[in-house]
Specification:
about 240 residues; 4-stranded parallel β-sheet; single chain; about 15% strand; 2 domains; amino-acid racemase activity; Aspartate racemase; Asp/Glu_race
């Protein structure tokens, strides 16, 4: 049995989804290894308040510096693979990836692999406004030949309200779940074959049973991919993407 690589998780954005990462990574390792096996795992849970202010100020340079310091700390503590447990803060992923010294698994690369598994090449995105409007997420997916569609302006405004007014502080209102279902229907009408929940907290408010299209739960997808890479004897890079073997 091959050795397990130590995973470093940059979390706390918000802690609700970081807890899901911890659970899913350990579930996947136990599923793969059996018995009493669990993940070799480090978590640096940041204070989301400071990160949220960077988002509001659109100070991505400062945010990137915080993310990189966290990644360096995890590597210094022995992490051999780093994941960032949030979709939005992958806007600053370049600050982490550049010269880190250990593999960094980008969440959109994991989503692209799941999209390929589903046989879909046109996916809808639900997430915070920068994820939907700033292009960094769609551009990363386009490297894998995946087209994206996003909901209209009214739905994008409502998504921001739901994410930052409710989900990241641990609330899920019934009317918000209904709004998310309506957004999925809008994306279906725009030709999406599946929908990526490109905010990790959205998985707390929308399940496959609520949706007319296949949902890609990005936190779960990312966490499982990280576990698989940690167990892979010879992970490799294909078209810029880390792949477990």
């Amino acid at each position: 049995m091959s050795a397990m690589r130590r995973i470093g998780v940059i979390g706390g954005m918000s802690w609700y989804s970081t807890a899901e990462y911890y659970r899913v990574i350990n579930e996947r390792v136990q599923e793969r290894r059996g018995g009493h096996h669990s993940a070799d795992l480090l978590v640096h849970s940041l204070d989301f308040s400071g990160i949220r202010q960077c988002q509001v100020d659109r100070d991505w340079e400062r945010a990137g510096a915080i993310m990189r310091a966290s990644a360096d700390g995890l590597v210094g503590a022995g992490a051999e693979l780093v994941v960032l447990a949030t979709n939005l803060m992958h806007k600053a992923a370049g600050a982490i990836e550049d010269g880190l010294g250990v593999p960094f698994l980008h969440i959109a690369d994991a989503v692209a692999q799941e999209s390929a598994r589903l046989g879909t090449r046109r996916i809808g995105l639900l997430g915070a406004r920068p994820v939907l409007e700033d292009g960094f997420y769609a551009e990363r997916l386009s490297r894998h030949g995946i087209d994206t569609v996003v909901p209209g302006a009214a739905a994008r405004d409502r998504l921001d309200e739901i994410i930052f007014g409710e989900l990241t502080v641990g609330e899920v209102r019934p009317e918000s779940s209904a709004a998310l279902q309506a957004a999925v229907r809008e994306l279906a009408g725009a030709g999406a074959q599946a929908v990526a929940l490109a905010c990790t907290e959205l998985e707390l408010a929308l399940t496959q049973a609520d949706a007319a299209l296949p949902l890609i739960a990005t936190a779960r997808t990312h966490a499982r991919a990280a576990a698989d890479l940690s167990l892979s004897p010879t992970p490799h890079t294909t078209n810029g993407t880390l792949v477990a073997t």
